[in-house]
From TrEMBL:
InterPro entries given in the database record: VapE-like_dom (IPR007936)
Pfam families: VapE-like_dom (PF05272)
Entry superkingdom: Bacteria
PANTHER family assigned to the protein according to its UniProt record, in alphabetical order: SLR0554 PROTEIN
Species whose genome carries this gene: Vreelandella glaciei
Coiled coil feature spans: none
Designated name of the protein: Virulence-associated protein E-like domain-containing protein
Extent of Basic and acidic residues compositional bias: 222-237
Disordered as annotated region, ranges: 50-72, 207-237
Boundaries of every Virulence-associated protein E-like domain copy: 526-745
Length: 827
């Protein structure tokens, strides 16, 4: 981490709205699980101050149902805890905040996932961005993601771990491990990591909130109805290993372990671990049970791990489980049983679910869990909640209903609903017998279309991706193989209805072509422009290199955006005129800026392609380019050889593409719906001497790709510009100005260098003489110049303004004499 911190948000308005995209959030993960996928995120809104001079309030809003109450609960000791049933994934929080035009999103500090944070308030000058020394020391010590607070008068940092329980709120400093939410402003403090890091900040907590300053905790009172706890709980009957039930004495260990602070509760935790392992529960799930807050015994582990759920689990894994496993193996005759089949199957199924899992399948699994003991039931329900994002209270209600009606299925049903053949009368094209009775359906396009509609299968042709999309209701599986799986499902249905299947794929393609879909057009026209001009704000995200005119940047970006709209909306006749090319230092976010133009995460993944190596002679390379809306040309610095330039320029500006896709019988002709973007590091990358106006070069020094601009509104504005008739190409005068700027980006060849340095350009005009380009090259050291070298030299001479005329069929230029030892040859 840098020793210096740079505040980059000096002029931001206090409490300005900021709703990031998923990629713009600070990233981080817990054991490989991204923080953005955990239910720790909420939306938030402003609450007006009660009186003048007070700060406005920040009210969390649940992305699940919009409620603002119940996000923080008190435990038995009166300590605030974040209620994670209130929160949801980052994607849901972003979607809810955008949909309801809220202020932004926030993250919950909580011990369940070990998310903690600090808030040095009144530590920043909002006018100058100056940081107080105490805030600087704290943020540098934390060494994790830090940003400016929404009021612009302080900072906050977020990390995975704990302060070792040394938390509090005093002297404009707050350290929290649970019970608070932190708003995300996106105003990253440069010099700190851009990721939410895993840290143990116990020493930092001790320094600022020592124990003598902490609030005393409420003492626990021992229950008076306790049995004798001086010895191990009584033995029970051996547990049936094929059942889902945990041995009841595990429950007693846990109950005893949290009942009386005077006990050696570590032994209670140890005893519970032994019984769980003896019953066939895996070590991983044993650690989950013993550190899950709702089971209570986690307080024992927390006493040994500075109050962090993550640290508690590690403590159990390191110090409790190894010895517990030995004892359990001894008790079981030297080995442990295999994990109980039904429990592990249910848990695995729960972990494999996602937000697209059909509701009926989720309910079936929750009902299965209803027949289990409380602890294992809760572990399955928590896994379902984590995988699907559903409210755990709703899942518990399903299990209660299952228990009430005594529904105890033996295992998770994998069978899908029974699918019946269609009545033959539903098909438009049928074969009848002699009496006119329908016998079978023919293999025709109308019959396949009728079958698709009957079973609710959606078929369409994506004009951007140039592919057929088939969506089968209730289908689950790998997204990587979704297309093949969907086609197999349709073929299976055709067989079920006794329709021959050899032409089904071709018929589906024909049906899809009649049901075209343009996801880019849907998104850029999906919002009505509100009249606010956001284009200048977008232009300014590109901080220019010295000497590059802002007017040219604004012109090129504006025209390029309009060309992207035309590509998406014009049914025929579109061709792009220029490649927006950002030239600047490495790793400043040039590619990220392109991705920031589409804030819809799902559309961004399918419509934008970055770092594409373009080869117009390669069919796969061409398909990779034309099946996306915005395409970044990769390795532009070195991938364009001079011999390929003309071919590449021709491809970029084509209006149609003829390609034969794999397994197609005929060549297909596609309307071009792609515009191109490029990013280069080297300032000299153009290899052609002339005609470089197809590369709309913008020289940049810095880029703000985390701008937070409402891009759907930007595109809505550009759509209006296109509809009003504004062009997306450059005029002749504008191309001339661009060509002048592009000269500084041309690769300097040895021919150009020798012509420009080997002739006495400053000598008087009366010492100049007429020579052919070949003669010029010979005078400066080329014994036998080739035709290509002579043509290049002639282009340089014309560019230098040398007068030319034809003489005896050859072109001669008025040129100065060659330099001799650094001086002009005047003889």
């Amino acid at each position: 981490m840098a020793d210096t911190l740079l505040d980059v948000a000096i002029n931001r308005e206090p409490y300005a709205p900021y709703i990031p995209s998923l990629e713009e959030l600070p990233q981080g993960d817990i054991d490989g699980v991204p923080l953005t996928s955990l239910p720790i995120w909420c939306a938030w809104k402003i609450k007006p101050p009660r009186k003048e001079g007070d700060k406005p309030g920040k009210v969390p809003v649940s992305p699940r149902d919009g409620r603002t109450k119940g996000w923080s609960l008190k435990d038995g000791d009166g300590v605030s805890r974040c209620n994670l049933d209130f929160f949801d994934t980052a994607e849901q929080a972003i979607q809810y905040a955008n949909q309801h035009r809220l202020q932004g999103i926030g993250i919950a500090t909580n011990r369940e996932y070990g998310i903690a944070g600090g808030d040095p308030d009144h530590s920043r000058n909002p006018e100058t961005g100056e940081m107080s020394e105490r805030a600087r020391e704290i943020i540098l010590s934390a060494n994790t993601y830090a940003e400016v607070s929404p009021g612009q008068a302080g900072y906050r940092f977020i990390f995975i771990g704990s302060f070792g329980g040394f938390t509090g709120n005093r002297d404009d400093l707050e350290f929290y491990e649970d019970g608070r939410f932190l708003t995300i402003t996106g105003d990253h403090v440069e010099g700190t990591p851009r990721r939410i890091m895993e840290r143990d900040l116990t020493e930092l907590g001790k320094k600022h909130f020592p124990l003598d300053s902490a609030k005393p905790t409420k003492p626990k009172t021992a229950r008076t109805d306790q049995p004798d706890l001086t010895e191990k709980p009584p033995s029970r009957e051996k547990v049936d290993l094929d059942s889902l039930m945990l041995p009841k004495h595990v429950e007693e260990w846990i109950k005893y372990g949290i009942a009386d602070p005077s006990l050696d509760r570590s032994n209670c935790l140890f005893g519970a671990a032994i019984e769980l392992l003896k019953a066939g529960v895996s070590e991983s799930q044993t650690a989950d049970i013993l550190t899950a807050p709702e089971h209570g015994i986690h307080v024992v582990a927390l006493e040994h791990s500075a109050g962090s759920h993550t640290a508690a689990r590690r403590w159990v894994e390191r110090y409790t489980l190894p010895e517990a496993r030995k004892r359990a193996e001894e008790a079981n005759g030297g080995s442990l049983p295999a994990p109980k089949r039904a429990y592990m199957e249910l848990l695995t199924d729960a972990q494999n679910m996602d937000e697209f899992t059909p509701p009926d399948e989720v309910k079936d699994l929750a009902r299965e869990a209803g027949s289990m003991e409380r602890l294992t039931r809760e572990m399955v329900l928590r896994a379902i909640k984590k995988s699907t994002g559903l409210n755990i209270s709703d899942l518990r209600a399903i299990t209660k209903e299952a228990k009430r009606t005594s529904m105890k299925p033996e295992g998770v049903s994998k069978a899908k609903r029974h699918i019946r053949p269609m009545m033959i009368d539903f098909f438009p094209d049928i074969v009848t017998d002699e009496e006119g009775e329908p016998v079978r359906a023919l293999q025709t396009i109308p019959n396949i279309a009728a079958m698709l509609d009957h079973y609710g299968i959606q078929v369409s042709y994506d004009v951007i991706a140039k592919k057929v999309k088939v969506i089968v209701p209730g289908a689950s599986g790998s997204p990587d193989n979704a297309d093949n799986s969907a086609l197999s499902s349709v073929i299976s249905l055709a067989k079920l209805n006794e329709i021959p299947t050899d032409q089904v794929p071709a018929f589906i393609a024909t049906i899809a072509d009649e049901r075209q879909h343009n996801p880019v057009a849907d998104w850029i026209t999906g919002a009505t422009w509100d009249g606010q001009d956001r284009l200048p704000q977008l232009y300014q995200t590109l901080v220019l290199a010295d000497g590059y005119p802002a007017s040219m940047r604004d012109l090129l970006v504006r025209r390029w955006l309009i060309s992207a709209v035309a590509a998406a909306l014009m049914p025929r006749g579109f061709r792009t005129r220029g490649v927006l090319t950002l030239q600047g230092p490495q790793s400043i976010g040039k590619s990220d800026w392109l991705k920031s133009l589409v804030s819809d995460v799902q559309l961004r993944e399918t419509a934008i392609k970055v770092d594409h190596l373009l080869d117009p002679a390669n069919k796969d390379s061409v398909l990779g380019a034309i099946t996306h809306w915005l395409v970044e040309l990769g390795e532009l610095d070195g991938s364009f050889r001079k011999a390929d330039v003309a071919r590449i320029k021709g491809f970029i500006t084509a209006d149609m593409d003829k390609v034969r896709r794999p397994y197609d019988r005929l060549e297909s002709e596609y309307q071009r719906r792609t515009v191109f973007f490029a990013s280069v590091n080297d300032s000299q990358f153009l290899v052609d001497e002339t005609g470089n106006t197809r590369f709309w070069t913008v020289a940049v020094e810095r880029i703000n790709s985390l701008h937070g601009i409402d891009m759907q509104q930007v595109w809505a504005q550009v759509v209006e510009l296109w509809r009003s008739g504004e062009k997306w190409w450059l005029t002749r005068d504008e191309e001339t100005e661009l060509e002048k700027l592009n000269r500084g980006h041309r690769v300097v060849s040895s021919i150009r260098e020798l012509v420009e340095t080997g002739l006495a350009w400053e000598s008087p005009a009366n010492y100049w003489e007429r020579r052919t380009a070949s003669e010029v090259l010979k005078t400066i050291g080329f014994d036998k110049p080739t035709n290509a070298q002579a043509r290049e030299a002639g282009a340089v001479l014309r560019e230098r303004g040398c007068n030319s005329r034809m003489s005896n069929g050859v072109t001669k230029f008025m040129v100065p004499k060659p330099m001799v030892s650094g001086f002009a040859s005047l003889g």
